[in-house]
């Protein structure tokens, strides 16, 4: 192969966002813009995110909103309520004197894992709560939305300015759940023999025709979040790393690639797999990516638009880390590290880095050097997960707008495949 | 104790139903009565049962109807659909030429365990089916109801007469699911910290003030179903058994009795328990009957009317066989056999035999001598469960009218306690 | 079939043991006989049983004696030590003043399930105890044997007479473990790909060529143990039951019969099986009785003599209740109840009732009417197991001499098949 | 704290092994030395390693050698046989024409996980194999030892030279099992209430009184194995990394340190723990390191010398990664990465780096950039484990002489604590 050679300068940073590709432009603009007053800008951003949550729930029936088809997933209704509880608990409860919670039991029902905040309803039982129903959650959301907007307008700019980090955290938190709303309902629909469609008109985004490789020579780069914009704590501290030499594929691995792996017996060849991975593959009888169904008309896949024939040119999706790693070995290649990915992405050398599928890296999800979770209750957010999971980079078709970031670190267990997860390859050869 | 002595004559039968207590009158009248033509009588009986199913579902939201709070329970929606599928599969599908099933996937989704009929959706996943929704099930029921009624009126009396056994099986089958609809939704509501009420106006039936004992001297009696009325195959063949001497309590064990057992450390005293029972009790941390909650105001219990204080005079309910057996040992008494129960019940010597709680017997659920399951597909009904379960006799507050029978054999595993299950004692002492 | 008709008189008892068949003569003679003094007779009986235990352990290496190949089984070493602990705990510890236990930790290590006696080592971990080793257990046994014999000779006849029930219990308890020593080591050897033989010269007992049926007309019979000889508490109280009409097979089901069942797809035909049974059969991939191996030379079976070809005429062995029940249904027959078995056995109408294979009955293991476990610590012995198990009658090739009894009730869970278990059929047809 | 400042030069290497501390001298000398001919040197090295295996087994009874006290552990007997099988399979079987395996079944029984070599006995069942016994394994070892030595002397130097990599692999493989022999038998003994000692005279090595910190400034270093000596494939390829600034503790965390953590409620404080770690700690009821027992005389710990009082100055041992991570967070410090550890160790700045306890790093066990497992059967060795485990560096008191190496990468799952595992801290503060 004759990949285009790319020589990033060590320590290069993205100096000119205006000229970046669309995929790169999206990451990390402020959520707050375009309005006159701070209260107005906060209100705009708040209502934009809140209404996006409702927009995603809109095609779903009350029954759809209640299902929890596996312990890792949560009901739509729960996502809608939990994100609302966040505002009630952390913003109104702590900063709006006299605010009365909408319902005294909701804090218990809709806390997720914030141990510091008190006891909470068992995760695996979320799908057993028939009440409150979808309509009551709608009322809950309206109640809290109104209270938050009123709070913004009743509060001094000075105090609001001090609350921006919290508000940004709440908005980004809700955006994360927006992505999960889609992955979780798709899992449930995929279990249904009738294969319901979330949106019959849904179409997958078209991939860029990326091919060839981009080359990174050895150099020192700064990895992690820098600057004032919002970020999660796991993106910090920014720090210097030595990266390269390595080549990264410009494009994502496609369904056509994956079918070749399958045809070559990839799922049955133990020597291609990590030991834990082959145990998962045989234990769960994997023979194709998640949601694929073998039909009389060939392989089909369950999508947000229902059951569809496989598109050979589309990026493969719903593969676990174990599968991604086996595919890479079968290809004679590797998965990149998250540092390699970030360096190449900052230099705008990766096609489809954002908005298609999250890309597995071979980097375990570990703390950056000197990372320390913040000590307040929001500090529970990321640090406690830093073992046994792997980092995914980029973003997916389900990621909300203005939520992607080049330093963003997503993470899942290596057997997980209900997210929109794919891969791109790395090559350490000459 | 000075129990009234009772000397049933061997082979006594209930010769004068007109004089029997109300509880005894209920059992086993025909479901078909009061109309002029056979088609008319079938239609009346059919619509009465079908509308009772819908009446029981009526207080429930779409979300309520979807929940499956444990693998043993099924969603309301599923009960409504499965009982409908029965008519479609066994009556219309086999006897109404040209009938087109309402939906091609429903046979797969709503078959329960009739292996002979084909593959079926996994039981434990019933709560993951968001579609079809409650409204679609309502349409399904209406469609099938209309088709059945039309079929009755389009079919000759001669053919209808031949179908009566099947129709009776279908009606009784649906009645069984009517009871499960209540037990299953109560289980789900009991898991909800908010303790929703199925019907806030619900009241438990008042027990008869039964006290003392009824004595059975040794005698040969015929056990099991005799005559032409509907019965399940497990009630056959009627056969002769030697019963007694034994005394049976006239009344049911009450909550007051049970509180004394609890106060005496009953749940923590290994020597009172069967070994498997104590393993269940400690493994599941039982310290009171099912659905009891210890509150600041004392013990309360989750009922169809919501959370209510314990009524000391009411029969204890939601106890497993293991608990019933431990209680009997603690009392210095035993549980009766199902034969003893039936003999005493036939002689109208038991109070609250029907309509309060099912009563655990110490009889394992085994085939009667020479029992052979019928070879048609309905023959899967009862015989395959005849191991590892115990017989309960009588009926409960959730049992539909006209479904009780003195020869009725209900059965559950010894750890089960989500049914309306209680006990009465037996005494083999002098 | 033309079974010989047999009319037992109701209430018949075995009035003339001298004339009974050898198989019937064995059951229930006293273990104490032939010696001059009471102390002498006790010593003879004691040493006879104790040396039989050692004789059974003799072919085994120290490693063999340590294995616990599944939680239900126990190491040989443990059986040898536990039976010794019994004497130390209940005889010497309570009745021999000043007796010092051989080792202070052994009571904890070698108690089995006597909750009343104190805490005990976890059952499933017995195979993890490398020390004390087989040699130390030999020393332990010698120490206790000497102390018991000395105790017998130092104690007055009057006091000894009062201890006879305890001593009989200890001897019968040890005999039960003698049978388990063989079943447990055979399970371990059967897991070993090298198929070691317990005794290469071992031969299975020859079956009597029983064929045809014995008929029981309806009659009242007394079931259970009567008289003064030793018995377990579960054989009491003797009580009257109505038995028949039924026919029982004179002989046991053979391997030839079983191969016909297998050839007819018995293991794959769901309609022949109890639901729980088919789940076990598929979950554990049964396709033949336990210990059968399909080899290039046909079916072979792991026996005490090592791997041997199937003997078509031998009784089938190592079948579970689930398999026995499925076989009976496939045959158009049933399993007998334990009452039917006992009535026919008392009348000497069953061939191979003893000394070949335990025979599954369809009777659940339940208390006889009015049964109450004794309140002392030995009372834990049988009563706590009276749920979820099935009764087996007769005895097996591994049962020690003088341990069989016509009223003996053995019991195992329906999935168990590591005991020497087989079946005989019953027929309720005309 | 006033840690001595240490400025390693980037790319520093250990230039003067003669002057290094004893602990550093040990790593990675050749196993082959001091003899005249190549065959002689190979024979010396081979017999030295083989006899060390037997020396470690010598204190153990046949029963001790059979126990498998958890699925992760293996019986001593199995270790002795498996390491022997290695020579038979890979050296004699492939390079000694006409060699006949000692026993035809041993390849099946004693293969471990080399999928490429064929089927193998289930790992979790190793403790169920009573035969072959310890004596037969001794005969097996003698047979193979003699055959190998004869092979060395019958083979040309040229051919032997080509086999050196295989022979080194076999010797290092056997040394790894020598360490496991001690960790596995200690686990079994620790389960025994009688707390048997492996060697009553055993004493733990004395720690160096390391205190304070060594500082690494930022610099580029080469990590991984370089040169011709033996190494495992996972130590390759050597590659450059950017390390620092960071400080590493000179000494290991001690029992005194750990008791302070325990006294401060460390095991009960969820906020100190990784989420998966706290689940393990509560699920397994950890309240102290592995093998600690709370006695009337205070905390004691099960060692190779039996139960001993806690030595406050000794390094804490038998802690899992989860515990090590929680301790580090409680200390306001971190665990080092494996790269940091290696850089400091190469510069001889770490006390007790070798020979005490393996030291958890926070580095996930991942492939070095461009790592590719070799394609022959020995290539199964390390690569397939590169997920879900964490790297430990250094070596332990159980590591055989001449087996340690500064680039050595040991790895275990984060919940494992039956190895001799401890930790040293890192500090990223100013």
TrEMBL record, chains A, B, C, D:
Please give the biological process terms from Gene Ontology that the record holds.
ergothioneine biosynthetic process
**Ranges of residues in domain DinB-like:** 46-177
Q: Does the keyword Transcription regulation apply?
A: no
Quote the Pfam families the UniProt record gives.
DinB_2, FGE-sulfatase
- Answer whether the UniProt record assigns the keyword Oxidoreductase to this protein: yes
Q: In which pathway does it act?
A: Amino-acid biosynthesis; ergothioneine biosynthesis
| Keyword annotations from UniProtKB, A to Z | Iron, Oxidoreductase
Where is each Sulfatase-modifying factor enzyme-like domain found?
A: 223-350
What InterPro entries does the record point to? CTDL_fold, DinB-like, DinB/YfiT-like, EgtB, Sulfatase_Mod_Factor_Kinase, SUMF_dom, SUMF_sf
Superkingdom field: Bacteria
Q: What is this protein called?
A: Sulfatase maturase
Query: Which organism is this entry from?
Result: Nitrobacter vulgaris
């Amino acid at each position: 192969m004759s990949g285009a050679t790319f020589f990033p300068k060590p320590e290069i940073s993205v100096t000119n966002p205006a000229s970046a590709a669309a995929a790169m432009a999206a990451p990390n603009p402020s959520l707050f813009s375009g309005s006159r007053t701070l209260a107005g800008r906060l209100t705009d951003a708040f209502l934009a995110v809140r209404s996006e949550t409702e927009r995603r729930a809109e095609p779903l029936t009350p029954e759809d909103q209640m299902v929890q088809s596996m312990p890792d997933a949560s009901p739509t209704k729960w996502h809608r309520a939990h994100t609302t509880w966040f505002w009630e608990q952390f913003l109104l409860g702590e900063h709006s004197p006299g605010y009365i919670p909408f319902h005294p039991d909701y804090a218990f029902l809709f806390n997720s894992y914030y141990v510091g905040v008190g006891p909470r309803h068992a995760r695996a039982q979320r799908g057993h709560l028939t009440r409150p129903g979808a309509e009551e959650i709608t009322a809950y959301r309206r109640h809290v939305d109104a209270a938050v907007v009123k709070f913004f307008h009743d509060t001094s700019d000075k105090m609001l300015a001090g609350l921006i980090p919290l508000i940004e955290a709440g908005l980004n938190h809700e955006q994360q759940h927006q992505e999960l709303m889609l992955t979780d309902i798709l899992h449930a629909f995929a279990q249904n023999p009738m294969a319901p469609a979330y949106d019959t008109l849904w179409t997958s985004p078209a991939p860029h025709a990326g091919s060839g490789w981009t080359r990174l020579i050895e150099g020192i780069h700064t990895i992690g979040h820098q600057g004032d914009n919002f970020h999660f704590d796991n993106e910090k501290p920014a720090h210097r790393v030595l990266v390269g030499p390595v080549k990264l594929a410009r494009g994502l691995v496609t369904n056509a690639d994956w079918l070749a792996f399958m045809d070559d017996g990839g799922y049955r060849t133990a020597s291609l797999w990590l030991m834990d991975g082959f145990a998962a593959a045989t234990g769960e009888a994997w023979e194709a990516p998640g949601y694929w169904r073998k039909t009389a008309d060939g392989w089909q896949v369950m999508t947000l638009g229902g059951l569809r024939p496989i598109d050979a040119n589309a990026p493969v999706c719903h593969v676990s880390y174990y599968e991604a790693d086996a595919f890479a070995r079968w290809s004679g290649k590797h998965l990149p590290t998250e540092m390699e990915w970030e360096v190449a992405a900052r230099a705008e050398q990766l096609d489809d880095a954002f908005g298609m599928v999250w890309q597995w890296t071979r980097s375990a999800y570990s703390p950056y050097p000197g990372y320390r979770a913040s000590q307040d209750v929001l500090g529970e957010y990321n640090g406690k997960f830093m073992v046994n999971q792997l980092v995914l980079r980029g973003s997916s078709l389900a990621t909300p707008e203005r939520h992607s970031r080049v330093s963003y670190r997503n993470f899942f267990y290596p057997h997980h495949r209900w997210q929109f997860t794919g891969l791109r390859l790395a090559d350490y050869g000459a």
